[in-house]
Amino acid sequence: MRDFADIWSYLAQTPLIWLTATLIAYLIGDYLAQRAGRAPLANPVLIAVVLLAALLWASDTSYAQYFEGAQFVHFLLGPATVALAIPLWHQRRALRRALLPVLAGLVAGSVTAVLVALALGQWLGLGPTLLATLAPKGTTAPVALGISESLGGSPTLTAVLVILTGIIGAVVVTPLMNALRIRDWRARGLAAGVAAHGLGTARAFQVNPQAGAFAGIGMALNAMLTAFLAPWALRLFL
Known about the structure:
Blueprint: H1 2-12, H2 16-35, H3 44-59, H4 63-75, H5 77-83, H6 85-90, H7 92-97, H8 99-123, H9 128-134, H10 141-151, H11 155-179, H12 185-207, H13 209-237
């Protein structure tokens, strides 16, 4: 055991260990999700987060030390988001036919996400910094972090809120759409992308290619709209 502790102490000082741990945790989560038949609750990201949190707690590792090694995954968020342009291009004709409903759903979802978050935060008595942190939590992480920092919020806390929003959305989106009897894959995908951004988009692609493409549309357009809407709404509430 002492030899193992010495080896772990050495490896923990190497940034690559946390990148490796992140990839292994996701592979375990994806394997368990496959075994569960891709059930909504068996979300691979949620499983990976739980595994990594347990490892960081057990090894007494700070988030800053973990992020030093795992930041390459964070860097890839940008290229991964841009790569969604490929399925969007394949669905361009379907998008043109449904342009007005898409824009209506986008505005409704974006405005609701920002205003409800700020109203709830103000009701709870949160200060300006926390409100600025909360305002962009409804959009994808690369954009949300930039908005939060520009508004004077905490980008780290915003990232946590974004991930929680995405995980919750990815878990509930399929049962909720089934309960509401929404069968149109375009509508289901758009809702997932606007409400649950990256993780919702990933879930939509697992269910149906068209739903995934429209989720990517919703996520991308929501990011642009939130970048304009969040500062204005924050000034309104302050």
